[in-house]
Amino acid sequence: MTDNNENVFLPLEAIREIAELRALGDEHKKGVAGFQSGLEETDQYKALESAEENWSVVEIDLGKAIAEFKAGCEAIFEETEEKEYPGGKIRLAKTFKYDEADAVNWAIEHKASSVLRIAKGDFKNAVCRTPLRPDFVKEITTPKLYLSSDLSEYLEDNDE
Q: What is the pTM assigned to this prediction?
């Protein structure tokens, strides 16, 4: 969520929007359960179809709001290294990048033939994550925002 006047990301406002959209989703799911007992030709079924169409729009809005919230929090993290946000937390994910041919050559050169027999993912655990990590292996750390599954405290109705 950004303020159009200053183009500043405001995490509390953004998480409130996400909380409200999730609450709409919860209400939708409750409504759907009540409608499912009806048959296709009934008024109830027609209302269900309409609710499903409306929920599709909310899902798109929710996806956009979450993406904007994550991008905003990750941008703030890049500037301030702040990891805690209303309704979310940044965690640093480590990945390793290397050329497979370099890995094979390294294993042969270091007489580590057992590394050649292990699965690709195991090379990362056996070699990349050790203090003796070869120079051709680059560690990449990227921030990733995780949202709380319960955002009810950020709904405007709960501010009282």
A: 0.57
Range of 37's domain? 11-84
* Three-state SS annotation for 80-146: HCCCEECCEEEEEEEEEECCHHHHHHHHHHCCCHHHHHCCHHHHHHHHHCCCCCCCCCEEEEEEEEE
* Burial environment of residue 135 by CB neighbours within 10 A (0 to 12, 13 to 18, 19 or more): exposed
Total domains in the fold of the chain: 2
100 with 129, same domain: the answer is yes
Q: Which helix (H) or strand (E) holds 62?
A: helix 43-80
pLDDT (tens digit, 9 = 90+) per residue, 102-138?
877 887 887 776 766 656 666 676 777 777 788 888 8
- 80 and 15 in a single domain? The answer is yes
Q: Return d(Cα 92, Cα 104) in angstroms, integer.
A: 29
3-state secondary structure of 37: coil
User: CA 56, 12, 147: angle at the middle one, nearest 5?
Assistant: 55
Same-domain check for residues 76 and 34: yes
